């Protein structure tokens, strides 16, 4: 991040026609964004939402309230414009791209072996990396993948410790018996891979999914392009968590868009030291909470870059 | 509110391509709005932000971090497009109107007598009532008035009980000594008017300000026109509080846009049973938090009215 632009933005913020600090979180967001944009008065002209979809071997274990074919059906829905993320991307003024990763070839059930081979996880990371428009000025990554809260919970547990129960939640709305199967599946997976999981990228390969790897690749690419990222929910944050464990401090280009109703998300944000912008009880994924927060970021930049200063407006500054 | 439209919207919400409840607060907002709009698939086409400004006699008591002339300076800033609310209204796609109420004639210092005469409070209520565009499909009311957190705190205390300390906050950023003067001023005002304050409209006349009365008039007019209202911060909510005490149950057309950093606001929302949409540490007024939440409401309506149903998209519904 460009500290000169950030400091110039902070100085501008102090001269805007409002009491100091009166725009709260909006002020912090604008100053943070200015550092990544490298300019005192940034605008949001070309935000991107990238949605990644993949299928999970562990879906056969009955860990979701929906059947696995819903992943492909929802990809078709994304492409036809019928999903929540289509509406929210349009609302936020963002372009939206959809990336289906080998839907007809689910990852391996991670209780029986690594979810992905080396080649598979590298390919998924690359898909994410190359999905990022280098000219975008903000990025949201989202996902779709029946079974992926189980994968994300296993990954979070491997990365940040605790028990499967701490990270397993209701996902799309599974019942008590399904939640028990979810906890068992996670516990079994963690036992199966053991010490290999101390390497964050190996944990991603063993327990993750293609869409999770792709989101990690996209978030890393965004940093390389100096594009700020607004994180979505539990699964996108788990992808960010892999990077945080692999390269501590590498998420300063990310903010947490929201905290979801999926129980592990608040815990995961805490581990990453991220304070969510919104708390609206969402638990959809797709990038939905990230896109909503992208709208709030746009509002923050409009106030920061568009307001008059005390001098310009002839207002007494207290 | 139209219960048939609301139930039709609820049924539509249950058929949209997402797990039930996965859009959290957005779903509730859309169903609530549908009832007021009287249609199953409402849109937000013509939202209005109305900002009211007035001056307060109690400003002479040193209860604000800013001098009283800032009210008129900020009205000029609103008209020139330089304030936060100009940017946030534009961001939310709302028209914005500014209403200055006799700025050269502050209300009376309420520690020496009623802030307004009968004629003055009626005129302010009417200004608010007529400021509402009957064709608007959502309304945010905002305010500007140096000293008005003191007026709002005194009013909240009269309406909902407790001590001056419970309701007095830092406003635009006053120091410890200023806060003490604020608490004293409120306590003195409450003592001065005594039993008259049990009548909510009389409390408004004795302790309020013209902009507060105007906001109350506008919120009442919105109900008469069946226009949903997104409340802003402490002062706008105090105006709504007058109506709630005068006619219990009359605020079902209102949602709380946000909870501000002004300490009394959370308490006041609690008294009114309102759950804020946003919590971003704002403490600016002007309608700023209301306009931000108006954007979230627009997003909620876009998902509700724009998404495909399970049948339309050919997605298995679990």
Structure, explained:
Chains A, B: It catalyses: 5,6-dimethylbenzimidazole + nicotinate beta-D-ribonucleotide = alpha-ribazole 5'-phosphate + nicotinate + H(+). Chains A, B: Pathway: Nucleoside biosynthesis; alpha-ribazole biosynthesis; alpha-ribazole from 5,6-dimethylbenzimidazole: step 1/2. Chains A, B: The active site is at residue 286. Two copies of one chain form a homodimer. Chain A is mainly alpha-helical. Chain A folds into two domains: 3-41 and 305-313, Nicotinate-nucleotide-dimethylbenzimidazole phosphoribosyltransferase (CobT), small domain (5,6-Dimethylbenzimidazole Phosphoribosyltransferase, Chain: A, domain 1); 47-300, Rossmann fold. The first copy, chain A, contains 14 helices and five strands. In chain A, the strands form two sheets. Chain A has a three-stranded parallel sheet, sandwiched between helices. The first copy, chain A, has a two-stranded parallel ribbon with strand order 4-5. The longest helix of chain A is centred in the C-terminal third of the chain and has 19 residues, at 288-306. The radius of gyration of chain A is 20 Å and the shape is elongated. At the A-B interface, helix 2, helix 3, helix 4 and helix 13 of A face helix 2, helix 3, helix 4 and helix 13 of B.
Summarize this entry quickly.
Helix content of chain A is 52%, strand content 8%. Chain A has 318 residues and is mainly alpha-helical.
């Amino acid at each position: 991040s460009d500290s000169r632009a950030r400091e110039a933005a902070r100085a501008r913020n102090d001269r805007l026609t409002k009491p100091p600090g009166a725009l709260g979180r909006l002020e912090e967001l604008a100053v943070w964004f200015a550092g990544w944009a490298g300019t005192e008065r940034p605008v949001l002209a070309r935000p991107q939402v990238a949605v990644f979809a993949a299928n999970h071997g562990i879906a056969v274990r009955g860990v979701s309230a929906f059947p696995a074919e819903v992943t492909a059906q929802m990809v078709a829905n994304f492409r036809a414009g019928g999903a929540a993320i289509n509406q929210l991307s349009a609302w936020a003024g963002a372009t939206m791209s959809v990336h289906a990763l080998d839907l007809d070839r689910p990852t391996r059930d991670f209780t029986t072996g690594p979810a992905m081979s080396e080649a598979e996880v590298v390919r998924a990371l690359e898909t994410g990396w190359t999905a990022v428009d280098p000219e975008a000025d903000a990025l949201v990554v989202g996902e779709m993948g029946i079974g992926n809260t189980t994968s994300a919970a296993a990954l979070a547990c491997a990365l940040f410790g605790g028990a499967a129960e701490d990270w397993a939640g209701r996902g799309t709305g599974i019942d008590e018996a399904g939640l028990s199967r979810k906890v068992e599946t996670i516990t079994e997976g963690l036992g199966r891979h053991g010490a290999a999981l101390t390497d964050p990228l190996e944990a991603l390969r063993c327990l993750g999914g293609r869409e999770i790897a792709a989101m990690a690749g996209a978030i890393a690419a965004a940093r390389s392009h100096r594009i700020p990222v607004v994180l979505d929910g539990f699964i996108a944050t788990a992808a960010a968590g892999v990077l945080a464990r692999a390269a501590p401090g590498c998420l300063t280009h990310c903010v947490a868009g929201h905290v979801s109703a999926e129980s592990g998300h608040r815990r995961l944000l805490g581990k990453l030291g991220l304070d969510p912008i919104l708390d609206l009880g969402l638990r959809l994924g797709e990038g939905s909470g990230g896109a909503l927060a992208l709208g709030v970021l746009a509002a923050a930049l409009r106030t920061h870059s568009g307001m008059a200063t005390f001098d310009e407006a002839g207002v007494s500054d207290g």
